[in-house]
Amino acid sequence: ALPYLRQQNIPMVGWAVSPGWNGPSMFGFGGSTENKAGQSVGNDAITRFIKSKGYTKIAVLADSSAGSSTAGKGELPLAKRFGLNVVYSNTAVPTYGADLSQVLPVAQKAQASGAQFILSFMGVNSPLIQAVAQLGKKMKVMVLTGYGPGLVQQLGSDMNGVYVQANAAAYITQKGAGITAFLQAMKADGVNGTPLYYNELGYVIATQFVWGLQRAGKNPTQKSLVAALNTMKNETLGGLIPPVTYPAMRFSGTPCDTITQVQNGKFVVVGTKPWQCGKVTVSG
After folding, report:
1. 8: closest CA among 25, 22, 27, 20?
2. Using an 8 Å Cβ cutoff, are 140 and 160 in contact?
3. Distance between CA atoms of residues 167 and 241, nearest Å
4. 107, 197, 105: which is closest to 146 by C-alpha?
5. Are 39 and 283 within 8 A, CB to CB?
6. pTM, rounded to two decimals
7. Which of 205, 125, 110 is nearest to 165 (CA)?
8. Helix runs in 135-221, H state only
9. DSSP letter at 49?
10. Higher pLDDT pick, 267 / 65
């Protein structure tokens, strides 16, 4: 759909799950993006974090879906740049339908290679975390799509020690004006219990869109909305997201993440708080 939306110049705000989120009317704050040259754009915040923790030998895993595989392959030269030795990589783990029986041999190979840390771009996390726990947790694991209550509720103590990255604030254990507003909005809309991470991303998207509309004049048009969004400078939405500036970040998104570690069943922000920031990177 993205080529059509770009062609029609339809203003969009979003969090991209695969490369391609670009164009003069498109505003993305996180996830994967693509620059004018068609190259995948990300950041090196996670790699910097792994390096800062003293790990030297890592394994990189991704599933065979296009977005995951591209991200995993892009991590290999990035790790080398930081002096990390990728002793095992598999960027084509069976996609989305993977179960423990398929992932356990992959985790075993990672362990046998001497990897101290597994960085996973896979869309399904449970089998990997279960596999590492079954192997005695000799390796640390970071997953990129597991923030929120689901994995902890599902996996219990197997989640302890697992690092989980997120593009927005760690709303379960952090505090802040933007987080409070988000949680109140979810409650008002009938979301019972702890919201999902994708509730937060959706709220951020809607809030940025409204932010632009509020500044687009009494009779907003496509042109005035785009112009208004392009005035956003170092906006965090009350601490809900890392600082975002448009149009400078149109093709890269924010170079910052939140990195948490599950400790006693709770997501604890680790590394540089509240944001682990790096530099924009290009691959492909």
Report:
1. 25
2. no
3. 7
4. 197
5. yes
6. 0.92
7. 125
8. 149-155, 177-188, 197-214
9. H
10. 267
